[in-house]
Design brief:
The chain is α+β, with helices and mostly antiparallel strands. The protein is built from 17 helices and twelve strands.
Length: 665
């Protein structure tokens, strides 16, 4: 009955089939591939052709278009933008820094880790891989890389003593090491959940690409992959780096590496002792040719992170795939190509000679072609049978239109070259116009630089350091570190800043304390081959000479000692003055008492002398009395003489008055 059939169906698995782990993974990957193909594949292929200047019939703008020229404006924009970001990130040599969150003595370990990572990154050519990822990001909008771990045999020349030091053996020292590498991934080889915006948010992601059969067989021999019979993968041009080239079909395997969550039930069928109790487990699954399971395991990394890093050249809200330089300048580039192709097609009609002729008056079997030295037979007057003609001349406005369209490409992408943007960057622009134009360009580059560093560079350094700590702990200290990107300005921004610093330098004197600092800033921003030597020389010049510093300190100490001695002398004089004033005050207070004491002593002595001196006192009294009398007598004589002189003077005066009176009469 229908009810019985319903009950039987309800007891069966909802998928109605027994699904294996590789089937579950490949189903996901195929769905993600379909989404990529329908939304991004065609556009990305055209961006690639515009960047490489590869013509395709589908790129025609009109049916009668015959020219295949592609203007290099978009190529220049891509390369200029990538070079600017590369110079800003790697131009100074030191492109990342590590600090210890614990601080203190552990800073030595952080410095050692940075130097060791820098050395290993140089040996594994990480900088070259990062440059390729930047090109992918500029062309397609998103740069993707896979972090791989390889066991290598590190070889270096060495010398060893033999026969108790009598001989020396020269050879090679081989050391087994685990190194971390970066593999750039092109968009057609990367699959991700369509609704995800980043690697961590997706349920999973996969790298789907063709690899050499030898590569897979070597990993089978090492025990990394399960041993199975490999077959040549069927041809799929969608996975090839360049679909315009002839595809090599032999000795290659389609390898699908899935990093993400898988159902616990399916994983437990392949792996024992699965940790945790969640229904989905983070795992790594490797499948060959879409059905052969080569490897499956839980995420083996100690931080449980996925070995994929990606960033957008320019972020598109709500989408994983970003917006690159080719997408920004796409419309301007297509218009520029159309303008140039139309002009070249017009040249074919205006330059090449054409001939109109009367076909009824041409001899039978005559070939209507035109070339130098050819004789053309006609039935009648050639002036009436033949007539050369053309379609006029080309419009000269196409030159100015092409220049404006090229300016539109540069404006849309933010990339400039030596010709500048419409004369604003070169000599035709004013200082204010140049500053505003460069300021806008630098800001656009900094937006991309932040995306690149925060979404790609620093996550890669962190994941690489964690893998070295896990798989090579003897050489890498396992501690909590903080990773920072040491970026600088690009070439354009540096030249702009050097100009500003030079103008600021002219406003101050060399004696200013800011003058050496500005000189050092200018040298740091200049792209000189011996920049580091110049900076070191400036720093040494800023540091004082030890002998001069010691002499200065001695002079300073002597000056301080002299000032201290002067201060002590002044204080001593002040104390002496205070003591003298206190002495005078005390003497003033004690003087009346001393006088009384002296009087009392004199009275006592006089009482003791008493009678013995009475006679002498009387004698002295008589002498004094006599002297007084003589003095009084002398005074009286002088007074009488003065009186007489006054009387004589009065008489003489009266006589003169009388004479004057008589004369007047």
């Amino acid at each position: 009955s229908m009810a019985d059939n319903y009950e039987d169906v309800s007891k069966v698995d909802p998928l109605m089939i027994e699904e294996s782990l590789e089937d579950w993974v490949m189903t996901k990957c195929e769905d993600w591939r379909d989404n990529y193909t329908s939304n991004y594949e065609e556009r990305f292929e055209e961006y690639y052709r515009l960047w490489r200047a590869i013509w395709d019939p589908s790129d025609k703008q009109r049916a009668s278009e015959r020219s295949k020229i592609i203007n290099p404006a978009l190529q220049q924009a891509v390369e200029s933008s990538v070079a600017e970001i590369e110079e800003a990130s790697f131009g100074r040599g030191k492109w990342f820094d590590i600090s210890d969150n614990l601080g203190g003595e552990n800073m030595h370990d952080a410095h050692f880790l940075r130097e060791k990572l820098t050395e290993d990154f140089a040996n594994t050519r990480v900088r070259q891989a990062v440059g390729e990822c930047l090109i992918n990001a500029a062309v397609y909008g998103t740069g993707i890389a896979e972090i791989t771990i390889e066991e290598i045999k590190e070889m270096k020349p060495a010398t060893q003593e033999a026969m108790d030091g009598q001989l020396q053996a020269f050879g090679v020292e081989i050391t087994d090491r685990t190194v971390v590498k970066m593999r750039p991934i092109q968009p057609q080889n990367f699959l991700i959940e369509p609704v995800a915006t980043c690697i961590e948010d997706a349920v999973g992601c996969a790298v789907d690409e063709f690899v050499s059969t030898h590569y897979v067989e070597d990993l089978m021999e090492r025990g990394v992959y399960r041993t199975c019979e490999l077959e040549n993968a069927p041809t799929d041009t969608d996975l090839e780096p360049d679909d315009d080239l002839t595809v090599y079909q032999d000795d290659k395997v389609r390898l699908t590496k899935y990093y993400g969550l898988v159902p616990r039930e399916l994983l437990e069928e392949e792996v024992d002792d699965v940790e945790g109790k969640s229904s989905m487990v983070e795992a790594i699954v490797v499948i060959a040719n879409g059905g052969q399971l080569l490897k499956v395991e839980e995420n083996p990394y100690m931080m449980q992170d996925r070995p994929i890093v990606a960033f957008s050249w320019d972020t598109v809200p709500g989408r994983f795939w970003g917006r690159g330089v080719c997408e920004k300048g796409y419309m301007s580039q297509k218009a520029l190509d159309t303008e140039l192709r139309a002009r070249i097609d017009g040249l074919a009609l205006t330059i090449h000679p054409m001939m109109a002729m009367d076909a009824s008056r041409m001899p039978r079997g005559a070939k209507p072609e035109i070339r130098p030295g050819k004789t053309i037979l006609t039935n009648g007057d050639p002036n009436t049978v033949l007539r050369p003609f053309n379609f006029g001349t080309l419009d000269q406005n196409t030159f100015s239109q092409a220049a404006i369209l090229q300016q539109m490409v540069q404006s849309s992408t933010g990339a400039i070259d030596s010709t500048g943007i419409g004369g604003q960057i070169n000599g035709e622009g004013t200082a204010a116009g140049i500053s505003m134009s460069l300021g806008a360009i630098i800001k656009r580059h900094k937006r991309t630089l932040v995306n690149f560093q925060q979404g790609f560079l620093i996550p890669f350094v962190k994941k690489a350091a964690y893998r070295y700590m896990q798989f090579d702990p003897e050489q890498y200290p396992v501690k909590d570190y903080k990773f920072n990107a040491t970026s600088s300005l690009g070439i354009i921004a540096r030249e702009y800043e050097v100009g500003q610093l030079t103008q600021l330098l002219q406003t101050m004197s060399p004696d200013s304390p800011m003058y050496p600092a500005l000189i050092q800033s200018i040298v740091e921003n200049m792209n000189l081959s011996n920049r580091e030597d110049l900076i070191e020389t400036l720093q040494k010049a800023a540091q004082p000479n030890p002998e001069a510093e010691q002499m200065r300190q001695q002079q300073e100490q002597a000056s301080l000692a002299f000032q201290q001695s002067q201060t002590d002398a002044i204080n001593a004089q002040a104390r002496e003055s205070d003591a003298r004033a206190q002495k005078y005050q005390t003497e003033t207070q004690l003087m009346p008492i001393e006088l009384e004491i002296k009087k009392m002593d004199v009275a006592t002595d006089s009482l003791q002398a008493g009678e013995a001196d009475d006679k002498e006192f009387e004698r002295r009294l008589k002498v004094a009395d006599r002297a007084l009398k003589e003095k009084e007598l002398g005074l009286k004589m002088q007074e009488s003489e003065h009186r007489m002189k006054r009387e004589d003077g009065n008489v003489a005066a009266e006589a003169q008055v009388m004479e004057l009176r008589n004369g007047n009469r």
